């Protein structure tokens, strides 16, 4: 082999090494560029205000106040947004209390719920064709996203009606297709469990009844803003400040309030009337003080106990979990549910209290 | 500098094996490195589970009865998925053999169906998946139909091309010797295009798996794809990765099995291919 061949081989090796270095380098870069905080969100009635906060400049205003940069990123697939947060791509993400427990907390990511934005008060529901009560679910095939809050809702509904999960067959159905499949289904015994805005589509079909909804288990499905516990105070304060400013605007009666709601309805992909109807089944905590009272109240603990029992019995804690005490959940009064040495989900009222006292 | 990169390289047998293994070893090393790093940062990390955690995951799904259903998940899922896959691609292969053969031999059949089959074969099956579910319901039928629609036109076209390649002299000779049209089609041509059918089916298996998993992701109560999409709900990569490896292994085995069938029954075909 002559010299020029050898040189070209050297180039090849160097080239390969550079590509590899670039691939690994990118990962490290992601970890280094931490001054900019990325927050993920996905579409849901109770989270649309985030889009407005970002679009109207409120979020930037609060980020500037605390000397940081916040980028709000829409991740169109809800589970994927939480997975990305858990995998380390985001500093914060919106999610329900149940998913916060089973995905990041069980995955070892110490997370803090800085804002309890609302709870579902009818936004999640069970719809059956040719039936009038939860008891009619017996023996049916029920379409739902398994292991989601819909599954939890079903478990609670069955429990209250004296049935068990063995009485139904669950069909895991992707949320993207669930409404279409239910509406097109010719099965006279079709049943479906879903959330808004899909719930609104299916419950208005002919010959169907809404037999159970989350207003019968109020406060149990909470919608949270969850951030890494290790994230700086500035981020937690900025997010909380921006959220309650947005809440104040949308709950007002000014023209800005109407514009804000219209903007949210549009990003949610519906009409203003539809969005307002969904807001009625969402118990929004427009006042920070309300959210504080709820978060510090006894119901949150009771709910989290229900939720973790459900998660454990459904295998959501994964391998290595031997009891529902696998992960610890802490509350504002300092009490802990589960393993005190493995607290990974923290309900925190500090920042909401600051918002309530205009101290942000 | 390694000479195996050269145009005229003739790597020795051990070097060939080593080269073949190299990318696998590299992949495993990168994986282990990343999982070790993430594990040290966070012992409960779920994104890149360590080998130990995956072993636990495999133990859980492949050797332990599920608490809720009392079934061993991996075998149960495999059985359900293979039933769907087998029915779908089995029907596709049998019908494709008949369709391709007749299209290749009989001009009337060809005029009637070639354009149509070509048209259907270009429709991306996944694009019409929601329609299939609405027409055939959320149970088994839609899943099998998807696999069928996804593979049938392709296999048919493969068989058709093989049937067209049969020399006309051969057919005329058979007819002259007194064979009926039926005998020409099924006694003379069919055995000759069998290996082509098997080959086409083999190549369609990859697509068939894709359709199987896609349909199980939309609405299902069991199956390999179902499980992957279900445990994705809580990021259980310790189950997802073994499932993916298992699917890969199954796919590899089927491929090998069909290849072995060809070399056992139709060794002449392998000779003509070379």
TrEMBL record, chain A:
* Tree of life domain: Bacteria
Question: GO CC terms on record?
Answer: periplasmic space
Keyword list (alphabetical) reads: Signal
Q: Origin organism of this chain?
A: Syntrophobacter fumaroxidans (strain DSM 10017 / MPOB)
Q: What is this protein called?
A: ABC-type nitrate/sulfonate/bicarbonate transport system, periplasmic components
Principal location: periplasm
Q: Which family does it belong to?
A: Belongs to the bacterial solute-binding protein SsuA/TauA family.
Any matching Pfam family? NMT1
């Amino acid at each position: 082999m002559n010299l020029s061949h050898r040189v070209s081989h050297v180039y090849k090796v160097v080239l390969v090494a550079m590509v590899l270095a670039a691939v690994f380098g990118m990962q490290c870069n992601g970890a280094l560029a931490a001054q900019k905080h990325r927050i993920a969100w996905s579409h849901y009635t109770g989270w649309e205000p985030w889009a407005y906060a970002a679009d109207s400049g409120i979020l930037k205003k609060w980020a500037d106040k605390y000397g940081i940069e916040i980028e709000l990123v829409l991740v169109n697939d809800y589970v994927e947004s939480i997975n990305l947060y858990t995998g380390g791509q985001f500093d914060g993400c919106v999610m329900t209390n149940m998913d916060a427990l089973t995905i990041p907390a069980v995955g070892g990511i110490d997370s803090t719920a800085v804002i309890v934005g609302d709870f579902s008060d009818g936004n999640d529901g069970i719809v059956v064709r040719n039936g009038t009560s939860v008891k009619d679910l017996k023996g049916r095939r029920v379409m739902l996203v398994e292991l989601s809050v819909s599954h939890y809702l079903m478990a609670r509904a069955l429990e209250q009606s004296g049935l068990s999960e063995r009485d139904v067959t669950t069909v895991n159905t992707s949320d993207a297709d669930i409404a279409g499949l239910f509406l097109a289904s010719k099965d006279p015994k079709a049943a479906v469990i879903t959330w808004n805005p899909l719930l609104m589509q299916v419950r208005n079909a002919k010959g169907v009844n809404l037999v159970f909804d989350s207003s019968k288990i109020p406060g149990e499905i909470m919608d949270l803003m969850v951030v890494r516990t290790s994230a700086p105070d500035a981020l937690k304060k900025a997010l909380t400040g921006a959220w309650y400013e947005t809440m104040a605007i949308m709950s007002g009666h000014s023209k800005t309030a109407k514009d804000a709601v219209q903007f949210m309805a549009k990003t949610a992909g519906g009409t203003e009337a539809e969005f307002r109807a969904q807001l009625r089944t969402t118990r929004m905590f427009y006042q920070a003080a309300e959210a504080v009272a709820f978060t510090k109240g006894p119901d949150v603990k009771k709910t989290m106990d229900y939720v973790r029992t459900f998660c454990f019995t459904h295998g959501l804690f994964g391998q290595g979990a031997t009891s529902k005490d696998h992960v610890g959940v802490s509350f504002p009064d300092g009490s802990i549910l589960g393993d005190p040495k493995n607290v990974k989900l923290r309900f925190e009222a500090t920042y909401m209290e600051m918002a309530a006292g205009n101290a942000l | 500098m390694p000479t195996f990169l050269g145009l005229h390289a003739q790597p020795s047998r051990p070097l060939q094996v080593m080269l073949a293994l190299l990318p696998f070893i590299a992949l495993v090393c990168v994986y282990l490195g990343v999982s070790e790093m993430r594990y040290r940062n966070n012992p409960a990390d779920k994104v890149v589970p360590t080998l130990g955690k995956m072993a636990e995951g495999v133990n859980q799904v492949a050797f332990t009865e599920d608490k809720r259903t009392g079934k061993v998940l991996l075998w149960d899922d495999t059985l359900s998925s293979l039933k769907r896959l087998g029915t779908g691609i089995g029907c596709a292969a049998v019908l494709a053999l008949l369709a391709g053969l007749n299209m290749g031999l009989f001009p009337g059949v060809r005029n009637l169906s070639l354009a149509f089959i070509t048209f259907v074969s270009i429709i991306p099956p996944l694009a019409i998946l929601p329609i299939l579910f609405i027409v055939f319901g959320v149970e088994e039928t839609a899943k099998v139909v998807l696999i069928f629609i996804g593979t049938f036109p392709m296999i048919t076209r493969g068989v058709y091309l093989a049937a067209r390649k049969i020399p006309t002299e051969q057919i005329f000779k058979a007819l002259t010797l007194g064979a009926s049209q039926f005998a020409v089609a099924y006694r003379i041509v069919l055995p000759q295009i069998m290996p082509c059918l098997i080959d086409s089916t083999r190549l369609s298996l990859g697509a068939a798996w894709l359709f199987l998993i896609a349909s199980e992701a939309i609405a299902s109560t069991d199956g390999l794809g179902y499980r992957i999409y279900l445990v994705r709900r809580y990021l259980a990569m310790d189950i997802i990765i073994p499932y993916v490896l298992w699917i890969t292994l199954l796919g590899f085995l089927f491929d090998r099995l069909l290849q072995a069938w060809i070399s056992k029954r139709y060794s002449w075909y392998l000779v003509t291919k070379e």
